[in-house]
Write a structure and sequence with these properties.
The chain is mostly beta strands and 291 residues long. The protein contains 2 helices and 22 strands. It has helices at residues 2-11, 127-145; strands at 21-23, 27-29, 33-40, 44-50, 53-58, 60-61, 68-75, 84-92, 97-107, 113-116, 165-167, 172-175, 178-182, 186-189, 195-197, 202-210, 214-220, 225-235, 242-243, 248-252, 262-269, 272-274. The longest helix is centred in the middle third of the chain and has 19 residues, at 127-145.
Length: 291
């Protein structure tokens, strides 16, 4: 009866405004993105707090008549082990405020290990490359830390190249016998020159040569959702360009730390690296293992 009453309040235009009903998955696998969505029968805005970040969201008219819906994409780090609260601070159309909190439990994933052979300079960089590496980290970090308010992403994402997976997300990489950090993207096969397409609408915030990632493009899709494309042989966009889903942004190459030509496809959500592969499907799966 309570659920029926809430549903009735949400669908009857002109009824007294209800507190937004938020839909959040109870369990999400390590390294996965998920969607938190709120619905009400009147306009509202909210600040969503997740893992120390605050993401502003605004409700828009939903497909259902008289319903307003707000959506935000959030991410669980690949090594997260503790429950985390998602808090919603909502302001309705009359200026009234309320808050609610739900928790998300991370599901442990057994990540694979990857043995790779690369040029020695990409395992132990020469001293004259250290300044470039630090510059790359600072510039990339600034882009991934920014949270622009207006989302331009829509699911499902478009697969940037059609090639199969050569290295999956979060693999524990061992270069030339030396352990290094986990893989923060998915490597998709493709010969040099293969067109690379934008996964969603957005704005190019970086398009530059980096030491490890080679020629790389970062696209901001709003709410802290940023897609990254690495090892390009050529750029088709520049910083500041607005791009549409499916637009050519560059071509597959073998620049940076690689074992051969491929696309390194990454997704960061408020700075957290997540597996982009589940977002290419028509239904987002938030629980599962490595691709």
């Amino acid at each position: 009866y309570v659920a029926a009453a809430l549903a009735l309040a949400l669908v009857l235009p002109g009824s007294a405004p209800a507190v937004p009903s938020w839909d959040v998955p109870e369990k999400v696998s390590q390294g996965h993105a998920f969607i938190a969505s709120g619905k009400d029968n009147a306009p509202f805005s909210a600040d969503v707090e997740w893992r120390g970040k605050k993401i502003p969201v605004k409700a828009l008219p939903a497909k259902e008549v008289g319903i307003w819906e707000a959506r935000v994409m959030l991410g669980v780090p690949l090594d997260e082990i503790k429950k985390q609260p998602v808090t919603f601070h909502v302001t309705d159309h009359e200026g009234k405020k309320n808050s609610s909190t739900q928790t998300v439990t991370p599901v442990k994933v057994k990540w694979i290990e990857q043995q790779l052979s690369v040029e020695p300079k990409f395992v132990t960089p020469p001293k004259d490359a250290l300044a470039q590496i630090e510059k790359d980290r600072a510039r990339s970090g600034a882009v991934l830390a920014a949270i622009s308010p207006a989302p331009t992403w829509k699911l499902p994402f478009l697969r940037p190249v059609k090639g199969t997976v050569s290295n999956s997300f979060a693999g524990r990489r061992v270069f030339n016998g030396q352990p290094r950090s986990p893989h923060t993207g998915t490597d998709l096969r493709g010969p040099t020159g293969t067109p690379i397409l934008a996964v969603a609408d957005g704005v190019v915030v970086l398009a530059e040569a980096q030491y490890y990632s080679g020629n790389a493009v970062f696209i901001d899709h709003g709410q802290g959702v940023v897609s990254m494309y690495g090892h390009l042989s050529a750029f088709a966009v520049k910083k500041g360009d607005k791009v549409k889903r499916g637009q050519l942004i560059g071509k597959v190459g073998a620049t940076g730390r690689v074992t051969g030509p491929h696309l390194h496809s990454s997704l960061f959500v408020q700075g957290v690296a997540v597996d982009i592969m589940p977002l290419f499907e028509s239904k987002l799966e938030v629980v599962g293992g490595p691709t």
